[in-house]
Amino acid sequence: xxxxxxxxxxxxxxxxxxxxxxxxxxxxxxxxxxxxxxxxxxxxxxxxxxxxxxxxxxxxxxxxxxxxxxxxxxxxxxxxxxxxxxxxxxxxxxxxxxxxxxxxxxxxxxxxxxxxxxxxxxxxxxxxxxxxxxxxxxxxxxxxxxxxxxxxxxxxxxxxxxxxxxxxxxxxxxxxxxxxxxxxxxxxxxxxxxxxxxxxxxxxxxxxxxxxxxxxxxxxxxxxxxxxxxxxxxxxxxxxxxxxxxxxxxxxxxxxxxxxxxxxxxxxxxxxxxxxxxxxxxxxxxxxxxxxxxxxxxxxxxxxxxxxxxxxxxxxxxxxxxxxxxxxxxxxxxxxxxxxxxxxxxxxxxxxxxxxxxxxxxxxxxxxxxxxxxxxxxxxxxxxxxxxxxxxxxxxxxxxxxxxxxxxxxxxxxxxxxxxxxxxxxxxxxxxxxxxxxxxxxxxxxxxxxxxxxxxxxxxxxxxxxxxxxxxxxxxxxxxxxxxxxxxxxxxxxxxx
Length: 497
Fold this sequence. Notes:
Layout: H1 7-15, H2 27-37, H3 41-54, H4 60-76, H5 79-85, H6 88-96, H7 104-123, H8 127-147, H9 152-166, H10 173-178, H11 185-200, H12 209-222, H13 227-238, H14 245-257, H15 261-268, H16 282-293, H17 300-309, H18 316-330, H19 334-341, H20 343-346, H21 353-364, H22 370-380, H23 384-392, H24 402-418, H25 422-436, H26 443-457, H27 461-473, H28 480-495
């Protein structure tokens, strides 16, 4: 854990700033920033302390310290630390407001601090305050863009905000309209790509490429991105710093989306760790999922490590669910499955889709169909042929319950889709919609989403729009908001053609 200066000392330190305070993103600050983005907080904090001593009027260290707070809270989800650190937002902003107003960092630093705290506040359920921060950041960045149109960091942050604004569910869009927030997902992604391209060619800002790549990976991972976009991003990530722990997260997530499960296992078996790095238990959760996708006998170990070391809110229920699945599909132990899945009721929270799914399974006391679950896991790992054989080599009597029959059609559609059998996939997706759109499962909504992407990629915009809208019309499905956000992003892409 990095050393913290007392709040009283910080306050006294900030009050010493005068109008002569400046923004100097010098070599020392760049090194500190690079270490912080790599989750090497101890080294970053040491360099910040050196900068404060040698250049006490420089305000960049305040922004760098905010990065540490943001990343540490975002990774750890430590509620006690959140309570201790959240007062620093206003204190830092007050100090920065005394800085050089002619610098492109003056408005940018304020906006960036607000964005980072907005993300943290969402993690801890403080949505109203997060919305206020996003609103403030947006208008600061818009003003800064007009003043300094060639300032690369601004493009990175505006791109992220435009994606967020474009992803707002339709029922809340009126709020954004009232306060003057404009933007869409395609615009934001393009701006992030522009920021990466410009920064990579600029000696002043090349140090920001890893952060831009992380943010773009986060965005692409949250949407129904094309294989081409994901492959392009994966290539970029693999060309970047191999000592950056944050980017191992990005590589693993993008590789998983591409069905490169063996790559995920390799990435998460070789990431850097030790006292110099901030702990990142979520990587154990990702590794556990990758091993489970391969039905590996050691898949339980990363999940147990995650549950032992993670002190946050999210993925706790999901970890117990995945651990229960391990006992069921790998060890064939229904007793341990039942015992483990019960923990998904009492432990953790339901802020994210994976945890909601785990709770639903635990509360409904429905042991998953083993064949369907194995096929799903193999599919998620990109082992499409094995997933296909798992389904077609099983007697039809295994899939007689209505939910299992519906899932069978959906799983088979997904496999044919990935294996390039598009006509078969389309027919199976349509069957899934027909029989499932009135049922409280995600299969029909996702089938509509997948159909839309097929038509979009084949330049059949009419049918693509039809099925994106069909997806958004299916109410009551699991993960409804997340599915509809992806459909909305698809509709936005169509409008841009």
